[in-house]
Amino acid sequence: MNAFDVLKSRGFVKQVTHEDQVRDLFENQKVVAYTGYDPTATSLHVGHLFTLMALKHIEALGHQPIVVIGGGTAQVGDPSGKTEMRKMLEVDTIGNQIETIKSQISGLLDFDSGKSLLVNNADWLCELNYIDFLREIGQHFSVNRMLSAEAYKIRLEKGLSFLEFNYQILQAYDFWQLHQRHGCILQMGGDDQWGNILAGVDLCRRLGQTQVHGLTFPLQMNAHGEKMGKTAKGAVWLNAQLLSPFDYYQYWVNTHDDDVHAMLGFFTFLPMDEINAVAHNDAETLNAAKSILAFEATKIVHGEPEAKSALQAAQSAFGQRHIPETLLPSSNMPRKIETADTHIPSLILNKKDIEENSLRLFDVLVQAEFAQSKSSAKRLIKQGAVRLNGDKISDEFALIQMGSFEQGQCIMKSGKKHICRLTIGA
Q1: Are 80 and 192 in contact (CB under 8 A)?
Q2: Domains of the chain
């Protein structure tokens, strides 16, 4: 299959420099394509996974993805999509974060056999001579054109540092270096990177009289018009230490009905003919499809054993869902599940506080991150959304008492999305 057509059929293509030419390249030769990731946190999140999924499709069809870790550009900061300047990171911090991110990416793409490449742009950016770089590269950039880019327009109102202003030039230079070193002819990134990508295409034309291409992915927004990948607890991290496999699974189970079809195309490797066959107006089918989506997405990031454990825990906590054998049959998700609750998040409470009747339920809701404040926790209780061992609690000042614990534990739920096992500590 033509890799460009696969990406387009799954919804990955937003803009492309010359669609017919890019399709022909994928048809007639091995395409080397890259996407960059600045190590600005200790983990990647689902927004990064979205682009990695596109790279995996390309790799699976015989082309070569390059993952560029921005050890150099992370020292500058990308203003794209930001309303304020990114916090400056220490070089040692960037180095530590690179190592953790490398381990995450290595679980998704095949670097060992050379099917994909992993490089760090610090290898060429940190060796640059400033004056030489200005003379050789800077002369090819129009300040007027750079300021017209959407990324810079947003920041000009609040202030754009000269440091960040250089980012587009450095990203363009990355493309030129990758073209020279590895024969890279396609840069891919989020749609907010379109201006930076075009700058790289233009620089390669000016320096090497060569035609390279750019492609952007749609920015991930959910059915509510919000940026995808955020929860009440923060970003949906791929690191199990920052977000447990169970919580990661629950994020996907709680996908909005209107987003199920798109998320199956983006975050699973299931065939599109099966995904297109999922009924859009059947609530029971959509709920079953959400379970398959959650299983497949969790399997990709955390492995199949963790996906099965999260599935079992969810079925135990929230009740069994009927998953028809004929629904998305390429998925190897178990259709008959033995329930288990070993992966339900837990919270240890102070025994003395309970015995002295000084621990309020709203405080525990905040500790469990079911609510961001005491007032919002009280609202949840007043709305009848909170249950202890299945019993609805309506008193917003209710106490946590010893009588609520059975064999040393109590199951606290809030709505359909949140569950926590409360246990008694010392």
Answers
A1: yes
A2: 3-217 (3.40.50.620), 230-318 (1.10.240.10), 346-424 (3.10.290.10)
